[in-house]
Amino acid sequence: MRLGSGTFAACCVVIEVLGVALFLRGFFPAPVCSFSGTEHQTESPAPEPSAGAISNWTKLPPPLFSKVVIMLIDALRDDFVFGSKGVKFMPYTTYLVEKGSSHSFVAEAKPPTVTMPRIKALMTGSLPGFIDVVRNLNSPTLLEDNVITRAKAAGKRIIFYGDETWVKLFPKHFVEYDGTTSFFVSDYTEVDDNVTRHLDKVLKRRDWDVLILHYLGLDHIGHISGPNSPLIGRKLSEMDSVLMKIHTSLLSEERETLLPNLLVLCGDHGMSEAGGHGASSVEEVNTAMILISSAFERKPGDVRRPKYIQQTDLAATLSIGLGLPIPKSSIGNLIFPVVEGKPMREQLRFLHLNTVQLSKLLQENVPSYKKEPGFEQFKVSERLHGNWVRLYLEENSSEVLSNLGSKVRRQYLDALRALSLSLSRQAAQYDVYSMAVGTVLVLEVLALLLVSGPRALSGKAELDVPLPSPAFSLLCYLLPLGLAALHVTVCTSAGGTCYLCSLPWLTAGGVMVLVSTLLCAVLSALTGMFAGGKRLSKNPPQCNSRSSELDLLILLGTVGHTLSLGASSFIEEEPQTWYFLVNTLCLALCHEIYRNCFLGDDCAPQRCPHAGEDFDGVAAAPQGKSPGPDVWELDRASRRPSPLGALRGPDRWMVLASPWLILTCCRLLRSLNQTGVQWAHRPDLGHWLTSPDHKVELSVLAAVSLIMIFVLVQKRCSLASKVAMAFGLLGIYCYRVAIGNLLFPWQQNNKDISKGITEARFVYVFVLGILFTGTKGLLKSQITADDFTVKTVGLWEIYSGLVLLAALLLRPHNLPVLALSLVIQTIMTQFVWRPLRHNAAEVTVMHYWFGQAFFYFQGNSNSIATVDISAGFVGLDAYVEIPAMLLTTFATYTGPVLWASHLVNFLTSEASRPAPETQASGTLCLCTKLTSTSVDGAKVANCHLLRLRELSPHWLSLWKGPQSVSS
């Protein structure tokens, strides 16, 4: 069977996308939810158990509070309130915690610790999935049962001011609202003033039941300058004043109401030491939660450490406090201290409603729910509760009722914890079957490409899949039957449902046939390859390739990295793996250079530079034309190669020193940004440079880095692009001065801080101009096919535009990362790849390795908390979704994208390469992308140990880097 190269490539891409989609469908767990929906909101609550007696309590308990105010401070870490910062900057809050009528807790927020999933958790009591991180950028309407919807249905009047995410999640739920944009992180003053300005008016009114305030300024300060910024203290003092105003107003109003009011101070997530959030560090998941009400007993001076609760517990507590049914998908427990002062019968009734709701949710999501310990404890609790109610209705002695009631209460609390734990475990289960099938599909495509890729992707070749013996054909016919039997076995076995099992049998059968067909194609291609290898072994080559050692290192490094991702500790510390691989690569290149210079090689003609070849570019071609393959072959035949040992002067010394210079650069970069779980907390040069005391040193380093960038980039640009690059880099420095990051030499300090919008847009103009010039050159080269120089200059100018954009978006202390990246690229191009004549496959893998290393040199990690979202708002005075997403993505993956772009430039400039090698590079790029996908599959075995939020940024980096190269 023969397939053309285009058909073969298209089939590989389609099957790969199918495999990845199937893998992701199984990887993102189905949420624990109630299948009865929210339409039955008028259903009667569970009656009070009475053990045969007639109970008169069949309705929901009345509300505990007249009004509820929720003051949510974005990124309110627990130590901001309960630590030294709270004592210093929040005195009124500290007073309430220690001596007031309040209950203080450390509320644990389950990852992903970003705003929209946390709001869902607070209001629904459920555990949002990691897919909500993506939906956080464009929050859809929340259809899941929640406290806000229940309150609106009960006639409660709700007012909201703050993050517009609430308005998107709960449209038409608020009688009055004023939303503020949460993504414009450069603003941390006006975004809170827009909330506070409504307080004086709304606190005097009596026409509302629930008031929700969402303050964003603290989170924005964290994104800009981290949790240790002096701005943090001023913002906490501002929030303390707001809390005091609300609390005193609620206390004065209680004189005219029968029920007390409730004030809830809480955070949606914490803040990492770098200022971000999204992952699972203690600083990100531990948030402060304080419940303040005159209904609670005053504490004489309680300085104990607050107890830990789950953030999902708030939904059940608010529902009980407002006299509402608990949301059906809530897995949270009632915060018992809130009702601890109530009569025993009310306490037990509240606990019973909570356990009934959790038990129903367990029955709907766990097939073997009767075996769960929480369900058994619930049945015991309900039976004991019925006995207590019977004794209560029979008016037994108070001592008997108190003793039995305490026992029932303990039993209920144990049952609540067990039920909630069982539901939390259920939410973390994965569809392993779908993940396995998706991974197998991707690995089969990868194997087929590795075996047949060089022939199939050649421009003139076709993929020939031979059909071997009848016995082999019989095996391929029986394979689908075996897979179908396996599918039936999996789908009929006990356990949770699988996505593939829910598909129609015809569709699932098609997937099984596809898997078996690919496997047969791989085996057939392997048979043909071994047959060809036997024929080739009869005529062995006369000399061994001197690249065998380097190729072995590349192979072992790639395979070893893939295998290392089977352990969670290696994923958490993946930066160390890439640092090791890059350093080892430099040592291997050093060994190869020294061997060529001092010992020579039998196969030197394949490796040594041509006499008279310029290290800064390709060999000269007549009239700027691209030399065709025949010209280069003739040139090789007529010239005698010059070994590296023949080099003299500076070129020789630069070639010898190049690996050591690269190692030195990498060591400096490792000290700039510490990353990884075990290293992120250690001091580094980045933290030292970004402290306010070292702004002068940071300014000097940034200026030197910008000058280096200009010198290294401008040499191959046109005159217009050189001028644009110079003015653009100058504009970048002015932008950083305007926003207060850097200083001009004549400045002592920069008190006049602005958003730098004009300066940033000034730079964007030059970026677009350079990109336009490069694109015009590329289009011109397509029209004039022989104009090779125009094409290379156009590609380089596009690369230069990306470098200028990266310099604008990266934080000032990361400008040396960009500058040293260009230095390493220049050294490798002039003194390693061209002198040693590495083939396209080796150069591609080296670019990929360095691109991954520079992803971590920037300070990134396999945690979404290290994503610098402030880069998406450079030059913007309002949140614009598409540009903000694109800029944030580019700033995060600057390393892989720039190294991929440099690879395109290098391979294009190497016109002397024979056509098969250049085509092989395309094969390798596609294989690299698929290898990255298989790496994701290798992580499956570890998903239950390594939390999902550690992987998402890493997956994106694996896909985007090679994808840019292959395109």
UniProtKB/TrEMBL annotation:
GO CC annotations, alphabetized: endoplasmic reticulum membrane
Keyword hit for Transferase: yes
Pathway: Glycolipid biosynthesis; glycosylphosphatidylinositol-anchor biosynthesis
Source species, domain of life: Eukaryota
Transmembrane residue ranges: 7-28, 432-451, 471-490, 510-531, 696-713, 725-746, 761-779
Pfam families: Phosphodiest, PIGO_PIGG
Gene3D superfamilies recorded: Alkaline Phosphatase, subunit A
Keyword Glycoprotein: yes
Keywords: Endoplasmic reticulum, Glycoprotein, GPI-anchor biosynthesis, Membrane, Transferase, Transmembrane, Transmembrane helix
GO terms of molecular function: CP2 mannose-ethanolamine phosphotransferase activity
Residue ranges constituting the GPI ethanolamine phosphate transferase 2 C-terminal domain according to the UniProt record: 656-947
Localisation: Endoplasmic reticulum membrane
Membrane topology recorded in Swiss-Prot or TrEMBL: Multi-pass membrane protein
GO biological process: GPI anchor biosynthetic process
Annotated family: Belongs to the PIGG/PIGN/PIGO family. PIGG subfamily.
Protein name: GPI ethanolamine phosphate transferase 2 isoform X2
